[in-house]
Amino acid sequence: MSRIGNTLVSVPKEVTVTVTAHSVTMKGPKGELVVIVPQGVTVKQEGDELAAVRTRNDKKAKALHGTVVALMKNSIVGVTKGWTKQLELSGVGYRAALTGTNLTLNVGFSHPVTVAPPAGITFAVTDGKIVVSGIDKYLVGQTAATVRGVKPPEPYKGKGIKYTGEHIRKKAGKSAKAVGGAPGAK
After folding, report:
1. Which of 42, 67, 93, 159 is surrounded by the fewest CB atoms within 10 Å?
2. Pair 74, 134: CB distance under 8 Å
3. Where does the pLDDT of residue 86 fall: very low under 50, low under 70, confident under 90, or very high at 90 and above?
4. How far from 38 is each of 15, 75, 107, 135, CA to CA, in Å?
């Protein structure tokens, strides 16, 4: 039994929804998103609420039932408020700057690294923090992961690009031997 799939999705007044046989289109103040409805699930609009209904009870339809509801909720939040992910730079001399719409990173390599945003994604840089924003939750998360992948935080000093609030488990590193020199030396 899918508890998420059985919940109703409420549609705010500023969002217009168009339901077809295989897709749900949502238009809001920030833009427009389309949720593809897979086979085995249908979407019905009842007033200002959307309901996902399984048309068959096989394993795949049960798995996709809750997914469709979650995608519709995320799309409604995206077209009304938008999604953001924030990244931090930690390291001596690590800098980020915008050149046009592209993000230029100086993170310890011999050359600057440029990251071009996909369509619908914008970058902002303030005080050593990078903000990735857009209306598609998946695309915002994937773009933030791509930026983090340029220089992930290393476990010894914690230098690199990390998500805001992410905890990096640090390793101890090499430990010095006790007084007396190398083992076996007299």
Report:
1. 93
2. no
3. very high
4. 23, 16, 42, 22
**CA angle 124–127–131, rounded 5-degree value:** 25
Report the distance separating Cα 96 and Cα 74, nearest Å: 29
Q: Minimal CA–CA distance to 169: which of 155, 148, 153, 159?
A: 155
CB atoms near residue 68 (< 10 Å):
25
**Phi, then psi, of 145 in degrees rounded to 5:** -65, -35
Q: Counting beta carbons within 10 angstroms of the beta carbon of residue 120, is it exposed (0 to 12), middle (13 to 18) or buried (19 or more)?
A: middle
Contact indicator for 115, 102 with CB cutoff of 8 Å = yes
Q: What local confidence, expressed as pLDDT, does residue 158 receive? A: 87
- 18-53: string of b/e by CB count within 10 Å (b at 16+)? eeeeeebebebebeebebebeebbebeeeeeebbbe
**Spatial CB neighbours of 119, under 8 Å, sequence gap ≥ 6:** none
Q: Look at residues 80, 102, 126 and tell me which one is the last residue of a structural domain.
A: 80
Show the domain range for 159. 83-163
Place of tokens 């076996």: 184
pLDDT tens figures, 142-174? 999 999 999 999 999 889 999 999 998 888 888
> Domain tally for the chain?
2
* Alpha carbon distance, N-terminus to C-terminus of the chain: 72
